[in-house]
Amino acid sequence: MTHGSVVAREYGIPAVVGVHQATTRLATGQRIRLDGSTGVIEVLS
C-alpha cells in the first residue's frame, strides 16, 4: 500500500489507503463509492 500512495501523490491522483478492517467489513462484490479527496467510503449495496 505504501508504494501506491506514493505514486498517487506524485501523480496528483486521489487515493484511499490503510482503511482499518476494510477486508473484513466489506464483502466481495459489494458496491462502494470512494472519495479519495476526503477519504470517505460509502457502501452502496
Proportion of residues in extended strands:
15-25%
Q: How many strands, which pairing sense, and closed or not: the largest β-sheet?
A: 2 strands, antiparallel
The SSE order reads HHEE
Radius of gyration: 12 Å
Strand order of the biggest β-sheet: 1-2
- Domain tally: 1
Q: Which class do the helix and strand fractions yield?
A: alpha+beta
Low-pLDDT windows of residues: none
User: What is the β-strand count?
Assistant: 2
Shape: globular
* Mean residue pLDDT: 87
Total helical elements: 2
GO molecular function, one term: transferase activity, transferring phosphorus-containing groups
Protein name: PEP-utilising enzyme mobile domain-containing protein
Pfam families: PEP-utilizers (PF00391)
Question: SSE layout and pairings?
Answer:
Blueprint: H1 2-11, H2 22-25, E1 32-35, E2 40-43
Antiparallel strand pairs: 1-2
Q: How would you describe this structure to a colleague?
A:
- One of its GO terms (molecular function) is transferase activity, transferring phosphorus-containing groups.
- This is PEP-utilising enzyme mobile domain-containing protein.
- It comes from Raineyella fluvialis.
- The chain has 45 residues and is α+β, with helices and mostly antiparallel strands.
- The protein is 31% helix and 18% strand.
- It is built from 2 helices and 2 strands.
- It has helices spanning 2-11, 22-25; strands at 32-35, 40-43.
- It has a two-stranded antiparallel sheet with strand order 1-2.
- It starts with a helix and ends with a strand.
- The model has no long low-confidence stretch (mean pLDDT 87).
